[in-house]
TrEMBL record:
Its main location: membrane. It comes from the Eukaryota. It is found in: Membrane. GO terms for molecular function: channel activity. Residues 126-137 have a biased composition (Low complexity). GO terms for cellular component: membrane. Gene3D superfamilies: Glycerol uptake facilitator protein. Pfam families: MIP. InterPro entries: Aquaporin-like (IPR023271), Aquaporin_transptr (IPR034294), MIP (IPR000425), MIP_CS (IPR022357). Belongs to the MIP/aquaporin (TC 1.A.8) family. This is Aquaporin. The chain crosses the membrane at residues 38-61, 73-90. It is a multi-pass membrane protein. The lineage of its organism: Eukaryota, Viridiplantae, Streptophyta, Embryophyta, Tracheophyta.
Amino acid sequence: MAKDIEAAPQGGEFSTKDYSDPPPAPIVDFEELTKWSLYRAVIAEFVATLLFLYITVATVIGYKHQSDPTVNTTDAACSGVGILGIAWAFGGMIFVLVYCTAGVSGGHINPAVTFGLFLARKVSRPRSSAPSCSSTPSSPPPTPSATPVTPTSR
């Protein structure tokens, strides 16, 4: 299959890009705080992070419960979703949530992605900090049952 090659126009320069980059976003844009699209993005990121964490963690907990031989009397190797099922749960949830939130908030479920876009000046400061801060409360708080238990010597 041959590569399409464009000929340079008569007397003109050959351009390799068929698009033009948008201007850099301002670092601080207070006008954006008055737009409904910012608050829709905050809500979308909150719900996406909430769903991602609770569904994937529930998959891991379900696998652990189903494969425990003391709780489940059937063959532990054949019960539960397995490690591959956990990987599919994580990958599938990221795929679905990014697809669903891409039109609303850009699909930046990971705050590191949003921070990288801020450093590249593709998003402004309010647009980068508000969704990142909204995804923090949707994560589960640390509980005593989630902390590692170490045996103590008496």
